[in-house]
Write a structure and sequence with these properties.
Blueprint lengths: L6 E3 L2 E3 L6 E5 L7 E6 L3 H20 L2 H17 L1 H12 L3 H19 L8 E4 L6 E8 L2 E5 L7 H12 L3 E5 L5 H14 L6 E3 L4 H10 L5 E5 L2 H13 L3 E5 L4 E5 L5 H13 L9 E7 H16 L19 H17 L2 E4 L18 E4 L6 H4 L6 E7 L2 H9 L3 E2 L1 E5 L3 H10 L4 E4 L15 E2 L2 E2 L5 H7 L1 E8 L2
Parallel strand pairs: 7-8, 7-10, 8-9, 10-11, 12-13, 12-18, 13-16, 15-16, 18-19
Antiparallel strand pairs: 1-2, 3-4, 5-6, 6-22, 11-21, 14-15, 17-20
Helix pairs in contact: 1-7, 2-4, 2-6, 3-4, 3-6, 4-5, 9-10
Bound molecules: nicotinamide-adenine-dinucleotide.
Nicotinamide-adenine-dinucleotide binds next to helix 7 and helix 8.
Length: about 475
C-alpha cells in the first residue's frame, strides 16, 4: 500500500473530513504510486482558514527580522535536503533531475533573498505640510493569504508565494496541484522543521473545485495568489472582484523567439531547444512559436530538426535523459489533439507528432518532441497554449513582420529575439508586448530578485519575486505623529 500523506493544519498532520484520498503516480512509470493524499473539501478549508486567523495576531506582531530568521532556516534546510526534494519532484511530475535540482535551487535562492526583506520592509518618511507633524508610510501585513499553485514548478512557485507572504507577516493556506502534492508536503515539512509556529502555514490538498473554490471565496481570506491556466485565472478574478479581495494571477503563455537573418544560428537553435522542449514544453515561458526570417529559414529549420532528433527521452532520474514525460495522460492526449489540429490546419509536420513508446518510454506518458513548419500566425497551434513539446515555425519576410507576429497573441509573458543587430535588439526590447524580453537567450529563465510576470492574458496584478513581491503581500499605511 502506498504511503499516506495528510493535510497540515494548525501545526498538525490531519486526515481530511471526507476520509477520501487520491493517488500520486509517477508519469515516467505509471505503475509507481508515490503516495495517497487527502481528498479535502470545504470543511478542511474552513478549518485551515480558522487556524490561519488564530495564528495571525501573534505572527504579525513577531518582528519582521525574527520572521526572516525562521525563513533563513527554511533556506538552509532546503539546501541540506536539495537532492531528495529534487528526486521526489522528478518522480512526481517527470521533469529531468537537472531541472528539478534547479527548481529547488530557485526556492533556496529566493528564500535567502526574501528572508532579508525582514530587515528591508521599507516605508517612507516625508515632510508634512502641517506644522510640527511627522509623516510616514509603513508596510503592514494584508492578513490571510490563499495560495493556489500549478504542477510544473512544484517547489519554486510555492516558494515565490509563501516566503514573501510569511516574511511580510501574513498567515497562509496553500493548495498544490493534484499532480504535485508531494513536493509541497516536503516544502511544508521543511517550514515545520525550521520552527514556523502552528497555524502560520497550512496545507490542504485536493481538487480545484473542492478546495480551490472555497479558498478563493472564504470571507476571511484577504488575498489570493494564483498561478495556473488563464481559464482558471479568469474564474478566480471574478470571484475575488465580487468579494473585494486583493489578488494576483500568473497564467499561460504563447511565447515566441524571433530568429533574424543576422543571428548566430547555433546559439538560436540551442535557445529554441531549451525553450521548446525543456520541462517537456510544460512551462508558462516555453517557446512554442519560432518566427524565422525567410533568408535563413531553410537552413535554421534543418539545424533545429537535426538537433531535436538527438534529444533522448526517458525517465528524468537517469542522467542522460534530455526530455521526460508529460505530467499525466490527459496532458499527453491534449498534446496529441493539437498535433492533429495542426496537421488539419495545413501545417507541415517535420519531426515528432506521435506518442513515444520505445523501451525507455513504454511505461510513461511520453511524447516525441515535435516541430511544425509552414505555420500561419492565425492557426490554432500558433495561438493557443499547448503546454507540451510542440514548436511551430513561422516564416516572415522582415523584422517588422516578425515583431507584429510575435505580438499577435492574447498572451504576453516572455518574448525573445536572436540577432547580432543592436538596432533590432533595442527596438524589440522596447516594443515586444511581454513582461519579460530576452535577447539571444531562451524565453525561460529569470533571476529570483527581478520581477517575474507578463501582460494581457498571461498575468494580472503585481509581479512575483524581487521587491515587487513584498509590495503585493503588504498594505501601506500612512501614519502621522504630533508631538
Ligand atoms: P490549472 O489552472 O488547471 O490549475 C492551477 C491550480 O488551480 C491547481 O492547483 C488547480 O487545482 C487549481 N484550480 C483549478 N480550478 C480552480 C478553481 N475553480 N478555483 C480555484 N483553484 C482552482 O493549471 P495547471 O494545469 O496546474 O498549470 C498549467 C498552467 O499554469 C499553464 O497555463 C501555465 O502556463 C500556467 N503557469 C503559469 C506560470 C506563470 O508564472 N505565469 C507559471 C507556471 C504555470
Amino acid at each position: 500500500m502506498a504511503k499516506l500523506f495528510k493535510n497540515y493544519i494548525n501545526g498538525k498532520w490531519k486526515a481530511s473530513a471526507s476520509g477520501g484520498t487520491f493517488e500520486n503516480v509517477n508519469p515516467a512509470n505509471q505503475s509507481e504510486v508515490l503516495g495517497r493524499f487527502q481528498k479535502s473539501n470545504k470543511k478542511d478549508v474552513n478549518e485551515a482558514i480558522a487556524a490561519a486567523e488564530e495564528a495571525l495576531p501573534q505572527w504579525r506582531a513577531t518582528p519582521a527580522p525574527k520572521r526572516g530568521e525562521i525563513l533563513f532556516k527554511v533556506a538552509e534546510l532546503l539546501l541540506q535536503q536539495k537532492e531528495s526534494l529534487a528526486q521526489d519532484m522528478t518522480r512526481e511530475m517527470g521533469k529531468i533531475i537537472s531541472e528539478t535540482r534547479g527548481d529547488v535551487q530557485e526556492a533556496i535562492d529566493l528564500t535567502y533573498y526574501t528572508a532579508g526583506e525582514g530587515r528591508r520592509l521599507l516605508g517612507e518618511t516625508v515632510p508634512s505640510e502641517l506644522k510640527n507633524k511627522f509623516c510616514m508610510s509603513v508596510r503592514m501585513p494584508v492578513g490571510i493569504v490563499s495560495a493556489i499553485t500549478p504542477w510544473n514548478f512544484p517547489i519554486a512557485i510555492p516558494s515565490w508565494k509563501l516566503v514573501p507572504a510569511l516574511v511580510c507577516g501574513n498567515t497562509v493556506v496553500i493548495k498544490p496541484a493534484t499532480d504535485t502534492p508531494l513536493s509541497v508536503v516536503n516544502f511544508v515539512k521543511v517550514c515545520e522543521q525550521a520552527g514556523l509556529p502552528p497555524g502560520v502555514l497550512n496545507l490542504v490538498t485536493g481538487s480545484g473545485s473542492d478546495v480551490g473554490t472555497p479558498m478563493t471565496e472564504h470571507e476571511k481570506v484577504n488575498l489570493v495568489s494564483f498561478t495556473g491556466s488563464t481559464d482558471t485565472g479568469a474564474v478566480i478574478a471574478s470571484s475575488c472582484a465580487r468579494n473585494m479581495k486583493q489578488y494576483s494571477l500568473e497564467m499561460g503563455g504563447k511565447n515566441a523567439i524571433i530568429v533574424m537573418d543576422d543571428a548566430d544560428l547555433e546559439l538560436a537553435v540551442e535557445g529554441v531547444i531549451f525553450g521548446a522542449f525543456g520541462t517537456t514544453g510544460q512551462r508558462c515561458t516555453a517557446c512554442s512559436r519560432v518566427i524565422v526570417h525567410k533568408k535563413i529559414a531553410k537552413k535554421f529549420t534543418e539545424m533545429l530538426v537535426a538537433r531535436t532528433k538527438t534529444l533522448k527521452l526517458g525517465d528524468g532520474l537517469k542522467p542522460k535523459t534530455d526530455v521526460g514525460p508529460l505530467v499525466n495522460e490527459s496532458q499527453r492526449t491534449k498534446v496529441d489533439n493539437y498535433v492533429q489540429i495542426g496537421t488539419n490546419e495545413g501545417a507541415k509536420l517535420l519531426t515528432g507528432g506521435k506518442y513515444a513508446t520505445g523501451k525507455d518510454c513504454k511505461n510513461g506518458s511520453f511524447y516525441q518532441p515535435t516541430i511544425f513548419a509552414d505555420v500561419a500566425p492565425k492557426m490554432r497551434i500558433a495561438q493557443e497554449e499547448i503546454f507540451g513539446p510542440v514548436a511551430s515555425v513561422i516564416r516572415v519576410k522582415d523584422y517588422d513582420e516578425a515583431l507584429a507576429v510575435a505580438n499577435d497573441t492574447e498572451f504576453g509573458l516572455s518574448s525573445g529575439i536572436c540577432t547580432t543587430s543592436l538596432k533590432y535588439a533595442s527596438h524589440f526590447k522596447a516594443n515586444a508586448e511581454a513582461g519579460m524580453v530576452m535577447v539571444n537567450l531562451p524565453t525561460a529563465g529569470v533571476d529570483y530578485h527581478v520581477p517575474f510576470g507578463g501582460r494581457k492574458g498571461s498575468s494580472y496584478g503585481s509581479r512575483e519575486q524581487g521587491r515587487y513581491a513584498a509590495e503585493f503581500y503588504t498594505t501601506v499605511k500612512t501614519a502621522y505623529t504630533a508631538p
